[in-house]
Predict the 3D structure of the following.
Amino acid sequence: MYNPFSLEGKTILVTGASSGIGRGTAIECSKMGAKVVLTARNVERLNETLKLMEGEGHVILDGNLTVEAELNSILERMPALNGVVHCAGVSQIKLVKFLDKGFIQGVFDVNVFAPLTLNTALLKKKKIKKNSSIVFISSISGVYASQVGEAGYGATKAALVGYAKSAAIELAVQGTRVNCIHPGVVETPLLNVSNGTFSEEDLENLKKKYPLKRFGQPVDVARCVVYLLSDASSWMTGSNLLLDGGFTLS
Amino acid sequence: MKLNEFVKAFTAEFEETDESVFSPATDYKSLEEWGSLTALSIISMIDNEMDKTITGADLRACTTIEELHNLIQTKE
């Protein structure tokens, strides 16, 4: 059957594959025929992701990407890739006047330094094949919108956009494409963490601001990722795909 | 952090409300300036100054500053 969105024959690295958008992406990529390399710190939860996936040949490489020795160990075992999806990230709410160096460093380490240095290492070790696709999970926070307490998080998500644009130009020589996806609120464990700060009522009120009357699900983001990884998007690079149920319209 | 120091630190997070309003018995959620921004300020202050993590739910569960101070003592 004609299917330009197929990932058959592609090997895709998904970071942060132990939960949320990363897990949803790994599952969806497997359903579209990809072999998936899953990374995250928690091997148990990576195994749970693996159980939800289809097909054969998936690989778990657990470790902390912000720790150089663990990153190196992951790289040694890394197969050649046709795509990379940077899903690993943290979201912490803190007001501007409390943004100390330690906090800023912490959120940038995970959301920016880890994916960028991973790209550098993958490219140096020639793990990224020609005509590959690199996808960053950014956010509506940063470039498109923001909320109280999201200055640190938004700064990291905006940083990815700047990086992706230049990387898209440089890697175009190899036919490799680099794009960002900007989801609105997605129902993931990351959201539950902030649940302590926001009441159920706050979240319900926020949901009403979405014209499509719901938050995103990991699979919503995963299907955008599939598009960007597939040959269907082979003329798309340096782009920012907004995925927010219409939130930023109003 | 002792209760009187806590009241002082709590007070410092408010920009508009007069200092004289604040005491251990103050019902902080009834203050005009109370809202999501001040709530986050208090959470961040407790995190930075006392190295304790409280949630929005904790803030909603307490009435007075003293009650909140007591609750913080039970946190890891």
Observations:
- The first strand of chain A starts at residue 11 and ends at 15.
- The domain at 11-241 of chain A is CATH 3.40.50.720 (Rossmann fold).
